[in-house]
Amino acid sequence: MRTPSGNKVYGMGAEYPSASALYEAAKRVRDAGFKRWDVHSPFPIHGMDEAMGLGKSWLSAAVLGGGITGLLTAAVLTFGPSWIIYPPTVPAFFPIMFELTVLFSAFTAFFAMLLMNGLPRWYHPIFNWQRFSRATNDGFFLVIEARDPRFTELEARELLEQSGGQHVTIIHED
Amino acid sequence: MDGASTVPDVIEAEASASAEKRLTRIPLVLNKRNYSWITERISGVIEANAPRWWWVAFAITSMVAMFGLFCLGYQISTGVGTWGLNHPVGWAWDITNFVFWIGIGHAGTLISAILFLLRQKWRTSINRAAEAMTLFAVICAAIFPGVHVGRVWMAWFLAPLPNNYGIWPNFRSPLLWDVFAVSTYFSVSVLFWYTGLVPDLATLRDRSTTKIKKFLYGIFALGWRGSNRNWRHYEMAYLLLAGLSTPLVLSVHSVVSFDFATSIIPTWHTTIFPPYFVAGAIFGGFAMVLTLLIPARAIYKLHDIITPQHVDKMAKIILLTGSIVGYAYAMEFFVAWYSGNQYEKFAFYNRIFGPYWWYWWVGMLFCNTVAPQLFWFKKFRFNIYVVYFVCMCVNAGMWFERFIIIVGGLHRDFLPSSWGMFYPTWVDIWTFIGTFGIFTSLFLLFIRYLPMIAMSEVKIVLPEANPHYSPDGHHSVAAGGKERT
Asked: Most CB contacts within 10 A, which of A114, B9, B22, B276?
């Protein structure tokens, strides 16, 4: 999708006056059946995941995997060579097993979070929108992407305006 | 420092609250500040030019830090003999300083992790600075055992690296557990701190006026856009890091205490050490948090974010942990008497009346046990000068405590022929002072270049951050309430 001036369209965005307005708008966009859209806020809004129709983050599963890897690594390090050299005393190995479980889990939590969020990503079309710099200060934004199968300029604009969105804007891809 | 002058405001707020039928909580951010005020005030600290006091303070602390590093260089190039260690006192200021610094770090993790899991929303005003304090304290702590190994260039023996010397670490040794515990603690603390910083770095990026600032903050903000699809995974990562840090912080000082408890030295060989050390660490750490934040909030006028309520709550934690520590001291004496062990009994008699008697009377008894008891009284918890005085007592007292445990345990060996004393050298003294220089220099750099208060987290505790908030005030639960629905 392109604008008359030839710019490729990333999507359509609107600004909302408050967290509660954004929360209500998200529920309407969800119910309208859109799939490729997102809200942007300076802080996580409680209950927004349900309002957007998102389930629980599965990051915890990745971290469980990381923790098990850490535990097994520690088991190999301690039981492996130390078992041969000295007589085995299992409780003495617990601290290392605990520490490496925590260490591996924490690294997994951090890097899995980045991976699942597609970060670092230093360029994004949304930064083309001048007003968007307030998203990290006091602005609340909702953006519907043009690649959403339901996206038409008319319908998206109507939905954003009816849900109380202000400064409804078409965001360019480049 | 007008913390004291705000007491009437709080009392007034409470009086008007009780006048209403429904009890309301004291807001966590005073004067109904909004989101952009928080952004402006906290980013403004970084965006303004460095004030003159900052340059003066940084010049002094960095010179002290440099001299500390010189002492370390001298010690490494000459040998451990430049420290006053000798038979029978083989551990003295170095290990005292290590335990002192690592203990200070614990308050930061308690605030960032344990209070997060307990849904203590007041933590948001102080967690960033406290976590930074943790990192800097752990850096200072790691220096001491690091150089105490003597041949620093062989410190890699501590790592389980397969090598052609056939050297493999002994995983049964508490000293090796310490290596793993402290390095894990530092790594996890860095990850937790940086995860929390990302949204705030994005704020600084979006406010940057120069290209170079935008580039640098932009790099570290990782392209954060405040997207809820990102917040979803971010919040889970934050929760899990808090959940992982909670047992970790309790384990670190427990492992530190194992260094002593697994030996046979009287006063060291006791089972009370892990909880006693952990309580002491949190106790000393909160005192250091207040030591840093009370001047910082006065200088940068952050009284609406770090309110008297915050100081009050931290004072209560100091009272609680200080009382646990006081109880542990008393229990040590009781067990020494009850055990009937003559070495144990002598060691504790020697603690009060021996050559280091005044360390106990001043440090352990007055600074750690008596001084925090002032916090039973609300009047003192709301008097910023009293709070600061007690914190200073605790800072000093916790150093004395570790000295008494370590040197007090060693200087009277089992045989009187092996008795001795410890005398610090100038290298001992200046290495310790140098770590204060390193600590304060790093903290000054931190408040200069990074947001010292977690903006994105403080915004959550504002009433209007609740998605069910309505301006007439009849939404379900006020800010600071147990749970937002």
From this structure: B276
